[in-house]
Every structure is written in C-alpha cells, then in structure tokens.
UniProtKB/TrEMBL annotation:
Record family assignment: Belongs to the Fur family.
GN (gene name): fur
Pfam families named among the record's database cross-references: FUR (PF01475)
Protein name listed in UniProt: Ferric uptake regulation protein
Residues that, per the record, bind Zn(2+): C92, C95, C132, C135
Amino acid sequence: MNSKHHSHAIEELNDTQKRVHRILTAARNPLSAYDVLDKMRAKGAVTPPTVYRSLDKLIEKGLAHRLESLNAYVACQHLHPHHHEMAAFAICEACGAVTEFTDPQIGERLAVWSESNAFAPKKITVEVRGLCESCAA
C-alpha cells in the first residue's frame, strides 16, 4: 500500500475508526480490543461492538492486522505496496515488540504448497516468536 493509498484509506474512515487507528498507531505494543476500548472510554462512552467493527474496518482497508496468537491488533507498518493476504510478524516474547515484515519467498512457497494440495487459503498470517535484538543481548 503506498502512502497516497494509505492516506486515502484513512480519509474514508469515520471518526471512531480514525480514533482506533490513531490509538493503534501510537501504541508501542499490540493492543487487545479491550485495551483499545479502555483508551477510547477516556474520551467518552463506547461499546465493545463499536471497537470490534472499527478494528474489522481497519483490517479490511489494510490499515491494521490481527495477531492471532496474541488476540491483539497492530497498525500496519508498511506504507508501500504489499500483499495483505499474507502478513508476517516477528514477536518478541520478552518485551512484546512486534515487527511486521514481508518476504516474497514465504508467500511463493505457501502458494506452491497450496496449489499442489488443492488448498485455497483466504488469509495467511505468519507469526515468528522469539527475542528481539535488544532482549537477546
């Protein structure tokens, strides 16, 4: 996603969705939906379904990702084109830092495997857990 498209996608969001996006973008670590809800409640009443709908919209627009193993969300870190059908993340088990990365070879290998096994993936999320450079030192 290029920065022009990214900006356009943000402009299409409603005010609540923009707030959720700002919260995710400002967060240092992944946030659960209830973490987002708590941050939003500081500025007025909001319900869990509203937060979940906003998170779903951000994911649909390619502005956020759901980390399956953590049941948490992060803002998309890429402002350049990449395939949102395949997201990859390095998750530090010590400090909780998450780095989004792309590797065309991973996507290609999964595509070959899927084709040879007559499997039609809808979404692929790769989560690599370990220690970041700072925590491993």
